[in-house]
């Protein structure tokens, strides 16, 4: 009787362990985006870290191409997300149920060619 009990315990333990250690097979998911070249460097730096941390095969990639191209690809369903420096215009038809999520801010510079100008350039908030 003791041997039968040990065998039963061994079988139950083996089944329990095999059901918890056997991984469920998941299809790898690829999340693709395109758009703003301004944020491409950020995605290029962050995507490998995201991809390395995922254990289910999910990867993210971002191809840039410009804000307009990104919005077009997102609207057309060829990408999962788009980066853009501007919103959809009044004549555009944005996709349903999307959300703008601000992720990065950066400086904007003003270049001024001052050939023949000898004064001091002073910019104010109004100008």
DSSP strand tally:
3
Supply Rg.
Answer: 27 Å
User: In whole angstroms, how far apart are the ends?
Assistant: 94 Å
Gross morphology? elongated
Overall structural class, as computed from helix and strand content, comes to alpha/beta
- Strand content range: 5-15%
Q: Can you give the mean pLDDT?
A: 80
In the sheet with the most strands, the strands line up as: 2-1-3
What are the low-pLDDT stretches, counting only 5+ consecutive residues below 50?
6-22
CATH topology of the domain at 27-88: D-Maltodextrin-Binding Protein, domain 2
Query: Considering DSSP H and I runs of 4 or more, what fraction of the residues is helical?
Result: 25-40%
User: How many helices?
Assistant: 3
CATH class of the domain at 27-88: Alpha Beta
Biggest beta-sheet profile: 3 strands, parallel
CATH architecture of the domain at 27-88: 3-Layer(aba) Sandwich
CATH superfamily of the domain at 27-88: Periplasmic binding protein-like II
**SSE series:** HEHEHE
Written account of the structure:
The chain starts with a helix and ends in a 44-residue tail after the last strand. The protein has a domain at 27-88: D-Maltodextrin-Binding Protein, domain 2. A three-stranded parallel β-sheet has the order 2-1-3. It is α/β, with parallel strands linked by helices. The longest helix is centred in the first third of the chain and has 20 residues, at 2-21. It has helices at 2-21, 40-53, 67-75, and strands at residues 30-35, 59-65, 81-83. It is built from three helices and three strands. β1 (30-35), α2 (40-53) and β2 (59-65) form a beta-alpha-beta unit. Mean pLDDT is 80; it is low at 6-22.
């Amino acid at each position: 009787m003791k041997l039968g009990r040990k065998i039963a315990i061994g079988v139950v333990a083996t089944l329990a362990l095999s059901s918890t250690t056997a991984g469920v097979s998941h299809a790898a998911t690829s999340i693709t985006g395109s758009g703003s070249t301004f944020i491409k460097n950020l995605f290029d730096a962050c995507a490998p870290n995201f991809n390395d941390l995922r254990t289910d095969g999910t990867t993210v990639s971002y191809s840039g191409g410009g804000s307009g191209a990104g919005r077009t690809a997102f609207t057309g369903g060829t990408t999962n997300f788009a980066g853009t420096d501007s919103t959809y215009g009044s004549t555009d038809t944005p996709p349903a149920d999307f959300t703008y999520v601000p992720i990065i801010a950066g400086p904007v510079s003003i270049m001024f060619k001052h050939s023949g100008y000898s004064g001091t350039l002073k910019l104010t908030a109004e100008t």
